[in-house]
Design goal:
This protein is an alpha/beta fold. It is 53% helix and 12% strand.
Protein backbone atom coordinates (compact mmCIF):
# COMPACT_ATOMS: atom_id res chain seq x y z
CA UNK A 1 0.00 0.00 0.00
CA UNK A 2 2.79 2.43 0.95
CA UNK A 3 4.64 1.77 -2.30
CA UNK A 4 1.47 2.60 -4.20
CA UNK A 5 1.19 5.92 -2.35
CA UNK A 6 4.82 6.76 -3.09
CA UNK A 7 4.34 5.83 -6.71
CA UNK A 8 1.23 7.98 -6.95
CA UNK A 9 3.01 10.95 -5.35
CA UNK A 10 5.95 10.65 -7.68
CA UNK A 11 3.60 10.38 -10.62
CA UNK A 12 1.86 13.59 -9.57
CA UNK A 13 5.17 15.41 -9.20
CA UNK A 14 6.26 14.17 -12.62
CA UNK A 15 2.94 15.31 -14.07
CA UNK A 16 3.39 18.78 -12.59
CA UNK A 17 6.93 18.92 -13.88
CA UNK A 18 5.79 17.74 -17.29
CA UNK A 19 3.02 20.35 -17.36
CA UNK A 20 5.48 23.10 -16.47
CA UNK A 21 7.92 21.83 -19.10
CA UNK A 22 5.16 21.79 -21.69
CA UNK A 23 4.19 25.31 -20.71
CA UNK A 24 7.81 26.44 -21.06
CA UNK A 25 8.10 24.64 -24.36
CA UNK A 26 4.96 26.29 -25.61
CA UNK A 27 5.87 29.75 -24.36
CA UNK A 28 9.60 29.61 -25.06
CA UNK A 29 12.34 31.73 -23.50
CA UNK A 30 11.49 34.70 -21.30
CA UNK A 31 12.93 38.01 -22.47
CA UNK A 32 12.84 41.58 -21.23
CA UNK A 33 11.80 43.66 -24.22
CA UNK A 34 12.69 47.36 -24.10
CA UNK A 35 10.78 49.82 -26.25
CA UNK A 36 10.86 53.61 -26.44
CA UNK A 37 7.86 55.74 -25.52
CA UNK A 38 7.33 59.47 -25.99
CA UNK A 39 6.00 60.28 -22.51
CA UNK A 40 7.34 59.50 -19.02
CA UNK A 41 5.87 56.67 -16.97
CA UNK A 42 6.80 58.42 -13.73
CA UNK A 43 7.12 62.18 -13.27
CA UNK A 44 7.93 63.88 -9.94
CA UNK A 45 7.34 67.51 -8.92
CA UNK A 46 9.37 69.11 -6.14
CA UNK A 47 9.58 72.59 -4.69
CA UNK A 48 7.24 75.34 -3.65
CA UNK A 49 3.70 76.65 -4.04
CA UNK A 50 3.88 76.96 -7.84
CA UNK A 51 3.59 73.21 -8.61
CA UNK A 52 1.55 72.76 -5.42
CA UNK A 53 -1.17 74.83 -7.11
CA UNK A 54 -1.63 77.52 -4.49
CA UNK A 55 -4.38 79.94 -5.48
CA UNK A 56 -6.17 77.53 -7.80
CA UNK A 57 -9.67 76.19 -7.29
CA UNK A 58 -9.51 72.99 -5.27
CA UNK A 59 -6.16 73.79 -3.64
CA UNK A 60 -5.61 72.54 -0.10
CA UNK A 61 -2.47 72.36 1.98
CA UNK A 62 -2.73 68.57 2.44
CA UNK A 63 -1.32 67.50 -0.89
CA UNK A 64 -4.44 67.53 -3.06
CA UNK A 65 -3.59 68.39 -6.67
CA UNK A 66 -5.95 70.97 -8.25
CA UNK A 67 -7.10 69.76 -11.64
CA UNK A 68 -5.96 73.00 -13.31
CA UNK A 69 -2.41 72.82 -11.91
CA UNK A 70 0.30 72.01 -14.41
CA UNK A 71 1.27 68.73 -12.68
CA UNK A 72 -2.35 67.55 -13.06
CA UNK A 73 -2.52 68.83 -16.65
CA UNK A 74 0.60 66.87 -17.58
CA UNK A 75 -0.55 63.77 -15.74
CA UNK A 76 -3.79 63.74 -17.74
CA UNK A 77 -1.93 64.40 -21.00
CA UNK A 78 0.61 61.60 -20.51
CA UNK A 79 -2.00 59.09 -19.36
CA UNK A 80 -3.81 59.60 -22.66
CA UNK A 81 -0.60 59.36 -24.69
CA UNK A 82 0.42 56.11 -22.97
CA UNK A 83 -3.04 54.52 -23.00
CA UNK A 84 -2.87 50.90 -24.10
CA UNK A 85 0.87 50.73 -23.44
CA UNK A 86 1.42 51.60 -19.79
CA UNK A 87 0.23 54.09 -17.19
CA UNK A 88 1.69 57.42 -16.14
CA UNK A 89 2.28 58.01 -12.44
CA UNK A 90 2.51 61.62 -11.27
CA UNK A 91 3.78 62.37 -7.74
CA UNK A 92 3.56 65.97 -6.53
CA UNK A 93 5.74 66.54 -3.46
CA UNK A 94 5.84 70.34 -3.66
CA UNK A 95 5.04 72.28 -0.48
CA UNK A 96 3.80 75.87 -0.37
CA UNK A 97 6.27 78.19 1.31
CA UNK A 98 9.36 76.02 0.88
CA UNK A 99 12.64 77.80 0.28
CA UNK A 100 15.75 76.34 -1.33
CA UNK A 101 17.09 75.54 2.14
CA UNK A 102 14.01 73.51 3.03
CA UNK A 103 14.07 71.65 -0.28
CA UNK A 104 17.75 70.84 0.10
CA UNK A 105 17.14 69.57 3.64
CA UNK A 106 14.44 67.19 2.40
CA UNK A 107 16.47 65.96 -0.56
CA UNK A 108 19.63 65.61 1.53
CA UNK A 109 17.80 63.73 4.30
CA UNK A 110 16.37 61.23 1.83
CA UNK A 111 12.73 62.26 2.29
CA UNK A 112 12.03 61.66 -1.40
CA UNK A 113 14.22 58.61 -2.01
CA UNK A 114 11.41 56.07 -2.37
CA UNK A 115 9.41 58.28 -4.72
CA UNK A 116 12.46 59.07 -6.83
CA UNK A 117 13.11 55.41 -7.61
CA UNK A 118 12.62 54.66 -11.32
CA UNK A 119 11.48 58.24 -12.02
CA UNK A 120 11.76 59.39 -15.63
CA UNK A 121 11.43 63.14 -15.04
CA UNK A 122 11.87 65.36 -11.97
CA UNK A 123 10.59 68.95 -12.21
CA UNK A 124 11.76 71.48 -9.61
CA UNK A 125 10.34 74.94 -8.85
CA UNK A 126 12.34 76.71 -6.16
CA UNK A 127 13.86 80.11 -5.35
CA UNK A 128 10.80 82.33 -5.36
CA UNK A 129 10.35 82.20 -1.61
CA UNK A 130 14.03 82.95 -1.01
CA UNK A 131 13.30 86.37 -2.52
CA UNK A 132 9.63 86.99 -1.79
CA UNK A 133 9.54 85.84 1.83
CA UNK A 134 11.60 88.79 3.19
CA UNK A 135 9.95 91.21 0.75
CA UNK A 136 6.41 90.22 1.78
CA UNK A 137 7.38 90.35 5.43
CA UNK A 138 8.59 93.93 4.85
CA UNK A 139 5.37 94.87 3.01
CA UNK A 140 3.04 93.33 5.60
CA UNK A 141 4.85 94.21 8.82
CA UNK A 142 6.85 97.36 8.10
CA UNK A 143 4.64 99.06 5.52
CA UNK A 144 1.43 97.75 7.11
CA UNK A 145 -0.09 96.85 3.73
CA UNK A 146 -2.42 93.87 3.85
CA UNK A 147 -4.70 94.30 0.83
CA UNK A 148 -4.47 95.21 -2.86
CA UNK A 149 -6.01 98.67 -2.45
CA UNK A 150 -3.35 99.73 0.04
CA UNK A 151 -0.70 98.31 -2.27
CA UNK A 152 -1.95 100.18 -5.32
CA UNK A 153 -2.27 103.53 -3.56
CA UNK A 154 0.95 103.32 -1.54
CA UNK A 155 3.03 106.50 -1.62
CA UNK A 156 6.45 105.15 -2.64
CA UNK A 157 8.17 108.30 -1.33
CA UNK A 158 7.69 106.81 2.14
CA UNK A 159 10.37 104.28 1.28
CA UNK A 160 12.93 107.06 1.62
CA UNK A 161 11.79 108.09 5.10
CA UNK A 162 14.18 107.78 8.02
CA UNK A 163 11.87 105.23 9.57
CA UNK A 164 11.38 102.93 6.57
CA UNK A 165 14.71 103.19 4.72
CA UNK A 166 16.77 101.25 7.31
CA UNK A 167 14.16 98.48 7.33
CA UNK A 168 14.15 98.35 3.53
CA UNK A 169 17.95 98.13 3.44
CA UNK A 170 17.92 95.34 6.01
CA UNK A 171 15.33 93.50 3.94
CA UNK A 172 17.35 93.75 0.74
CA UNK A 173 20.50 92.59 2.57
CA UNK A 174 18.54 89.55 3.70
CA UNK A 175 17.41 88.89 0.14
CA UNK A 176 20.99 89.20 -1.14
CA UNK A 177 22.16 86.69 1.47
CA UNK A 178 19.32 84.37 0.47
CA UNK A 179 20.39 84.51 -3.17
CA UNK A 180 23.91 83.40 -2.19
CA UNK A 181 22.42 80.58 -0.12
CA UNK A 182 20.18 79.64 -3.04
CA UNK A 183 23.22 79.12 -5.27
CA UNK A 184 24.76 76.71 -2.78
CA UNK A 185 21.47 74.91 -2.07
CA UNK A 186 20.68 74.45 -5.75
CA UNK A 187 24.08 72.91 -6.48
CA UNK A 188 23.79 70.46 -3.58
CA UNK A 189 20.20 69.60 -4.43
CA UNK A 190 20.97 68.88 -8.09
CA UNK A 191 24.05 66.78 -7.29
CA UNK A 192 22.09 64.70 -4.78
CA UNK A 193 19.11 64.25 -7.08
CA UNK A 194 21.41 62.89 -9.78
CA UNK A 195 22.56 60.25 -7.30
CA UNK A 196 19.00 59.23 -6.49
CA UNK A 197 17.46 59.17 -9.98
CA UNK A 198 18.57 58.69 -13.56
CA UNK A 199 15.59 60.69 -14.72
CA UNK A 200 15.72 64.01 -16.58
CA UNK A 201 15.95 67.00 -14.22
CA UNK A 202 14.08 70.19 -15.12
CA UNK A 203 14.56 73.40 -13.12
CA UNK A 204 12.10 76.28 -13.51
CA UNK A 205 13.16 79.92 -13.51
CA UNK A 206 11.45 82.43 -11.20
CA UNK A 207 9.07 85.00 -12.69
CA UNK A 208 8.46 88.57 -11.50
CA UNK A 209 4.79 88.77 -10.42
CA UNK A 210 4.80 92.59 -10.34
CA UNK A 211 6.33 93.50 -13.68
CA UNK A 212 3.22 94.31 -15.72
CA UNK A 213 1.34 96.67 -13.45
CA UNK A 214 2.50 100.32 -13.28
CA UNK A 215 1.14 100.60 -9.74
CA UNK A 216 3.75 98.08 -8.60
CA UNK A 217 6.68 99.54 -10.55
CA UNK A 218 8.77 100.47 -7.50
CA UNK A 219 8.39 97.08 -5.87
CA UNK A 220 8.86 95.33 -9.21
CA UNK A 221 12.23 97.02 -9.64
CA UNK A 222 13.08 96.16 -6.04
CA UNK A 223 12.70 92.42 -6.53
CA UNK A 224 13.45 92.29 -10.25
CA UNK A 225 17.22 92.53 -9.90
CA UNK A 226 17.30 89.74 -7.30
CA UNK A 227 15.05 87.53 -9.42
CA UNK A 228 17.45 88.06 -12.32
CA UNK A 229 20.32 86.95 -10.06
CA UNK A 230 18.50 83.73 -9.18
CA UNK A 231 17.64 83.02 -12.80
CA UNK A 232 21.23 83.65 -13.88
CA UNK A 233 22.37 81.05 -11.36
CA UNK A 234 19.84 78.55 -12.71
CA UNK A 235 20.76 79.11 -16.35
CA UNK A 236 24.54 79.40 -16.02
CA UNK A 237 24.89 76.12 -14.13
CA UNK A 238 22.56 73.99 -16.26
CA UNK A 239 25.13 72.53 -18.65
CA UNK A 240 27.71 71.66 -15.99
CA UNK A 241 25.08 70.11 -13.72
CA UNK A 242 23.16 68.23 -16.42
CA UNK A 243 19.67 69.67 -16.10
CA UNK A 244 17.23 71.42 -18.40
CA UNK A 245 15.92 74.94 -17.77
CA UNK A 246 12.20 75.63 -17.99
CA UNK A 247 12.18 79.39 -18.56
CA UNK A 248 8.92 80.38 -16.88
CA UNK A 249 10.33 83.87 -16.27
CA UNK A 250 10.68 84.57 -19.97
CA UNK A 251 7.17 83.28 -20.76
CA UNK A 252 5.64 85.39 -17.96
CA UNK A 253 7.68 88.52 -18.73
CA UNK A 254 5.41 91.61 -18.68
CA UNK A 255 2.37 89.30 -18.49
CA UNK A 256 1.95 88.89 -14.74
CA UNK A 257 -1.55 90.41 -14.78
CA UNK A 258 -2.49 87.84 -17.44
CA UNK A 259 -0.85 84.73 -15.96
CA UNK A 260 -1.01 85.36 -12.19
CA UNK A 261 -3.54 86.36 -9.55
CA UNK A 262 -1.67 89.57 -8.74
CA UNK A 263 -4.79 91.69 -9.32
CA UNK A 264 -6.18 89.88 -6.26
CA UNK A 265 -2.99 90.56 -4.29
CA UNK A 266 -1.77 87.00 -4.96
CA UNK A 267 1.56 86.42 -6.71
CA UNK A 268 0.78 82.83 -7.78
CA UNK A 269 -0.08 81.66 -11.31
CA UNK A 270 -3.74 81.45 -12.27
CA UNK A 271 -5.20 78.62 -14.36
CA UNK A 272 -4.01 80.26 -17.58
CA UNK A 273 -0.50 80.57 -16.16
CA UNK A 274 -0.48 76.88 -15.25
CA UNK A 275 -1.37 76.00 -18.85
CA UNK A 276 1.63 77.99 -20.01
CA UNK A 277 3.96 76.22 -17.57
CA UNK A 278 2.52 72.83 -18.58
CA UNK A 279 3.36 73.55 -22.22
CA UNK A 280 6.88 74.67 -21.33
CA UNK A 281 7.58 71.54 -19.27
CA UNK A 282 6.07 69.30 -21.95
CA UNK A 283 8.35 70.75 -24.62
CA UNK A 284 11.37 69.81 -22.51
CA UNK A 285 9.99 66.38 -21.61
CA UNK A 286 9.47 65.58 -25.30
CA UNK A 287 13.10 66.29 -26.12
CA UNK A 288 13.92 62.69 -25.27
CA UNK A 289 12.41 59.21 -25.34
CA UNK A 290 11.77 57.01 -22.34
CA UNK A 291 12.31 53.29 -21.89
CA UNK A 292 9.41 50.94 -21.27
CA UNK A 293 10.32 47.38 -20.30
CA UNK A 294 8.00 44.39 -20.45
CA UNK A 295 8.48 40.66 -19.94
CA UNK A 296 7.72 38.54 -23.01
CA UNK A 297 7.93 34.83 -23.81
CA UNK A 298 8.82 33.91 -27.38
CA UNK A 299 6.63 31.15 -28.82
CA UNK A 300 8.58 28.10 -30.03
CA UNK A 301 5.68 25.84 -30.93
CA UNK A 302 2.94 27.45 -32.96
CA UNK A 303 0.29 26.17 -35.41
CA UNK A 304 1.36 25.85 -39.04
CA UNK A 305 -0.65 28.90 -40.03
CA UNK A 306 0.91 31.07 -37.33
CA UNK A 307 3.81 33.44 -37.62
CA UNK A 308 6.68 31.68 -35.85
CA UNK A 309 8.28 35.02 -35.06
CA UNK A 310 5.30 36.20 -33.01
CA UNK A 311 5.58 36.65 -29.27
CA UNK A 312 3.14 36.34 -26.41
CA UNK A 313 3.30 38.77 -23.51
CA UNK A 314 3.57 37.13 -20.17
CA UNK A 315 3.32 39.17 -17.00
CA UNK A 316 5.52 38.66 -14.00
CA UNK A 317 2.46 37.71 -11.96
CA UNK A 318 1.66 34.83 -14.33
CA UNK A 319 5.20 33.50 -14.00
CA UNK A 320 5.12 33.76 -10.21
CA UNK A 321 1.74 32.01 -10.03
CA UNK A 322 2.91 29.16 -12.27
CA UNK A 323 6.09 28.59 -10.31
CA UNK A 324 4.20 28.97 -7.06
CA UNK A 325 1.69 26.29 -8.05
CA UNK A 326 4.46 23.90 -9.04
CA UNK A 327 6.59 24.26 -5.94
CA UNK A 328 3.56 24.60 -3.69
CA UNK A 329 2.12 21.38 -5.04
CA UNK A 330 5.44 19.63 -4.65
CA UNK A 331 5.69 20.79 -1.03
CA UNK A 332 2.15 19.60 -0.22
CA UNK A 333 2.87 16.18 -1.69
CA UNK A 334 6.04 15.81 0.39
CA UNK A 335 4.11 16.72 3.55
CA UNK A 336 1.37 14.21 2.77
CA UNK A 337 3.86 11.42 2.07
CA UNK A 338 5.75 12.23 5.29
CA UNK A 339 2.57 12.08 7.39
CA UNK A 340 1.53 8.77 5.84
CA UNK A 341 5.02 7.37 6.33
CA UNK A 342 4.97 8.28 10.04
CA UNK A 343 1.60 6.66 10.50
CA UNK A 344 2.81 3.55 8.69
CA UNK A 345 5.86 3.18 10.92
CA UNK A 346 3.90 3.47 14.17
Amino acid sequence: MFKKIISSALACVMALGCALSCFAAQEGDLQVITTEISAPQKIIFLGDSIPAGFGLEGYTDNGVNPQTSYPSILESKYKKELEGVCDCKMINLAVSGDTSSQLWQKVGNGNFDTNLLASDVVVVSIGGNDIMEPILEFIYNDLKMTNKDQFKTFDTSKLNSSEIMPKLNATMEKVTANVATFKSNLAKTIQTLHKKTEGTLIIQTVYNPLDSNPSYATFSAMIGAKINDVNSIIKENAADNNYLVCDVAEAFKNKSTQYTNITDFDIHPNAEGHKVIADLVDQLVKQKKYKYEELKATINEVPDDSDSSSAKKMSKNEIYITLGLFFGGFFVLIVVVTIIFKKKTK
